[in-house]
Design a protein that fits this description.
By secondary structure, this protein is mainly α. Helix content is 68%, strand content 0%. The chain has 14 helices and no strands. It is globular. The two termini are 27 Å apart.
Length: 236
């Protein structure tokens, strides 16, 4: 794919789509310097798809753990296309990793306002990550004014709320209680959705606990999740 894009660009230097294909292939192969050169050259042409160029640059920096540079690029993407929920969600995730909780909460709120049915990220995914941020900061009392108890009292609570209960249990150092919530969530959710939700560093730091054995993605499952996801943040 990368070689095909290179040949297309050589024959038609102004072909922006081919340049982006080449950049994506370079990012996937971890050829970061080459990806940045391709994207910077494409950006200098005044390409119409400035938001996608900025987002790919952010992805490239994210894979290198350069979160400050990544944040700047995400802001460029938002400036070029402020209605994309994906960009605001990425900004929230970056700020969460940088310890900027209030900025992250504000960005999650903007992403929720812009979420659309059938598009990624879903409103459910955004709301779930927002709840994790509150829980890890010891602010679970701010979660939707008791909505957790209302949801968990239902005969069939949603998987996201079962995972929220598991996160609260882990924050309270109750891995056995968390395991019960996780088992219910795994039974209630499609397998891929469950694995994607729990593949968050808040949960992964607890993956070695014996009470939680078998409740996290295997190495192969996680590799597939990462391969199928736009590389906004790739956690260690």
């Amino acid at each position: 794919m990368r070689e095909l894009a290179r040949d297309l660009i050589a024959n038609r230097p102004g072909l922006i789509g081919a340049a982006l294909v080449k950049a994506r292939a370079s990012i996937a192969a971890r050829w970061h310097a080459e990806a940045e050169v391709t994207l910077e050259r494409t950006r200098s042409t005044g390409a119409a798809d400035a938001s996608e160029i900025a987002f790919l640059r952010a992805s490239n920096f994210g894979l290198q753990r350069k979160l400050d540079e990544m944040r700047i690029c995400i802001d460029d993407a938002i400036a070029a296309d402020p209605v994309r929920a994906e960009f605001h969600f990425a900004r929230a995730e970056i700020d969460r990793r940088l310890g900027r909780a209030d900025d992250s909460l504000a960005a999650y709120a903007r992403a929720l306002e812009r979420a659309r049915p059938g598009r990624s990220p879903s409103a459910g995914s955004i709301a779930f990550r927002r709840r994790l941020l509150l829980i890890e900061g010891g602010r679970e009392s701010e979660i939707d004014a008791g909505a957790d108890q209302t949801e968990l009292a239902k005969p069939t609570p949603s998987g996201d709320w079962l995972l929220t209960a598991a996160a609260v249990a882990l924050q309270r150092r109750d891995p056995a209680g968390a395991a019960q919530w996780l088992q219910r969530a795994r039974a209630a959710m499609p397998s891929r959705e469950y694995l994607e939700r729990i593949d968050d560093y808040f949960f992964r730091v607890h993956a070695g606990r014996p009470e939680l054995k078998g409740l996290f993605p295997t190495t192969a499952e996680r590799a597939q999740i990462v391969a199928d996801t736009r590389p906004v943040l790739v956690d260690p």
